[in-house]
Design brief:
Blueprint: E1 3-6, E2 10-16, H1 19-24, E3 32-34, H2 37-44, E4 49-55, H3 57-67, E5 72-75, H4 82-93, E6 97-98, E7 110-116, E8 122-127, H5 141-145, E9 149-153, H6 161-172, E10 176-179, H7 183-188, H8 190-199, E11 203-207, H9 208-214, H10 220-230, E12 233-237, E13 243-247, E14 250-254, H11 268-281, H12 286-300
Parallel strand pairs: 1-5, 1-9, 2-7, 3-8, 5-6, 9-10, 10-11, 11-12
Antiparallel strand pairs: 2-4, 7-8, 12-13, 13-14
Helix pairs in contact: 3-11, 11-12
């Protein structure tokens, strides 16, 4: 197998809202907030659901990689319930090998309420459900060992059992890539993430806001200097300023696509990472990897939802 993704198996519930809905519910635009099932249901009351689709950050990247013809798999925890069944069918349809046997339990499959404001920004409210209970027994050691790259998400990292699952995956992998996922995740786990980036990851994906928070800096030049010294491959998306990849003394940049009608930014980072890894696993140049990531990202932001059909 070329790439195995390990992440939160989440069903996305997509709704359009006005900015005052975020203010009224104390939600910070463009970030992710974890909530319990009661708060999730209360927020959803009265909202019109635009779409319900299998999601999860790394799963979105993995589906994109499959659509580009790569041999990929995914590990993520679901319950044997209607949403879990929908999730599994969604992966099978996209030719993603699913390395998890669902079991019926009291904790439901995780869901993410994706709130799209008129400026196309997405704000996420997540009830992790059983996805947040992933443990080392859920990690298929042979699947990890037989994959060229294991791709992890910052959303999944947490103290206790999820960390043990993470550690098992890293310990048995040939090469590890990870997305920092969200500013919320970075600020919550800053010292642990910094240790991962410095010592355990071969490829790190982040947006400008996330990587600058990780390094406690307001100057992007500090990111470049850190990345040069670190020596690992660090890939940073910068919105309308494009993207760049830094590895040692090599810095490669790619401009953003112009004149795009943006509908929803939900899957932008996920599909960028998928496109980049497609190039990387198929021995393309770093410039070509950035270009493929940018192409995939620009396609998904022109539709509602985080997956291309």
């Amino acid at each position: 197998m070329q790439i195995l993704g390990i992440g939160n198996a989440i069903v996305d519930v997509i709704c359009k809202v006005q900015d005052d809905f975020l203010l009224k519910n104390s939600l910070k635009k463009s970030t992710m907030k974890l909530v319990d099932q009661t708060e999730f249901k209360n927020l959803l009351k009265g909202l019109k659901i635009e779409e319900t689709v299998s999601g999860g950050s790394i799963a979105n990247s993995i589906v994109g990689l499959s659509q580009l013809g790569n041999k990929v798999g995914f590990i993520g925890k679901i319950n044997d319930d209607p949403l879990g069944n929908k999730y599994e069918i969604g992966l099978e349809k996209e030719k993603v090998k699913y390395f998890y046997s669902k079991r019926r339990g009291s904790v439901p499959t995780g869901t993410c309420l994706i709130l799209i404001t008129p400026d196309s920004e997405r704000t996420m409210v997540t009830f992790l459900g059983v996805a947040g209970q992933i443990n080392e027994d859920d990690i298929n050691k042979e699947a990890v060992k037989n994959s060229e790259i294991v791709f992890l998400e910052g959303y999944l990292w947490d103290k206790g059992e999820p960390k043990k699952a993470f550690d098992k995956a890293i310990r048995n992998s040939n090469k590890v890539a990870m997305s920092l996922s969200d500013l919320f995740c970075v600020e919550r786990h800053k010292s642990d993430f910094l240790d991962l980036v410095k010592n355990k990851l071969h490829i790190t994906f982040a947006n400008e806001q996330e990587i600058m928070s990780l390094l406690n800096t307001k100057k992007f030049n500090d990111v470049i200097e850190f990345s040069k010294k670190n020596g690992k491959l660090i890939v940073v998306t910068r919105g309308e300023n494009g993207a760049l990849a830094i590895q040692g003394s090599e810095i490669v940049e790619c401009t953003a696509k112009q004149n795009i009608k943006i509908k929803d930014l939900t899957g932008a980072g996920d599909l960028f990472a998928g496109g980049f890894l497609h190039g990387y696993i198929n021995n393309k140049s770093i410039k070509e990897c950035l270009e493929k990531g940018t192409e995939m990202s620009s396609k998904v932001i022109q539709i509602i939802g985080a997956r291309l059909s």
